[in-house]
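Per reviewer request, we include the raw input and output of the structure prediction for the construct analysed in the revised manuscript.
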Amino acid sequence: MSGPKSGPKRAPAGQKRPSRPRKGPPKGKGGRPVKKAAGAKPSGLRFKLKARPAPIVPPQAISGQALMLVVAIMSFLACLTVGFVAIVNDAANDWTNDLVREVTVQIRPADGVNMQQEIDRTLALVREFPGVGDARALSDEETKGLLQPWLGAGLELEELPVPRLVLVEIDDPELLNLADMKAKIEQDIRAASVDDHRVWNRQLSAMANTAVLVGFGILVLVLFSMVLSVIFATQAAMSGNKDVVEVLHFVGAEVSFIASEFQRHFLVLGLKGGVIGGTIAALSFLVIGFFGSSDITSVSGNQVQALFGTVQVGVIGYVGIVAVVVLVAVLTALTSRLAVHRHLANMD
């Protein structure tokens, strides 16, 4: 037989079982409860990180990538326009400054006139006027070089009625009275005429202004085309996410919140496309300038340099390219925001 089983003792009938004392907070010295440190995390609990809400428009959508490509192409064309306008404007300014500071005196050959004496008298006369820096007559070799493209090499100037040119450099255009000098030369020097290049100066200024206006018009057309592309892309994105937009709109989401989501999405696309297009345009100008400077020894290179100088975009041109990139990004974001506002207004 087995012995008696050990187990919990039962209280006799009519007698209450003593209750177990409840455990209180841990106590320190003096019987006072110990306080937990501030910010302490309770044990046994797991804390989840707050997940970032998913964007309304998927960032890797095919339509978004296509729009970024369109914006990059438009930015490239706009930056090219700005760069070429800067090149033409700089070249025209250089031409204008050179023409303003130079006057040409032409002495035509005449019977009974010693050409060398007339040249010396002209040089002495123009140097008397204040504001004139230097004056010199073109040598025979320089004159032959000017006529060589039309008459060929091996010219004999003594056998041809070739006029001689005197170049007058002006240090201070405001100090020189050009009208008085012109009248004095034509009065004292026989068969002499003064060309102050005003006609050429007006033509160059008109050409430069026309180039700037045409470039500005092209820039406006390119940006307008880009804005239309952004409007169509925004409408396509709204249609592709129609259910999400409608739910957010009807549950009380503010229009500014929905518009800001689209604006942020298209701002990133516009900035990426603008940077890509602007970078390619800047690299194109660097390549053109490199090959243009290496081809300067050829005849065509000399002609291009004579017309445009060194084909390089200055600081103003590159600042214009950066401004175009920023403008493209801002226009893309604002256009998408306005398109979203209009779409939601039609839903109401």
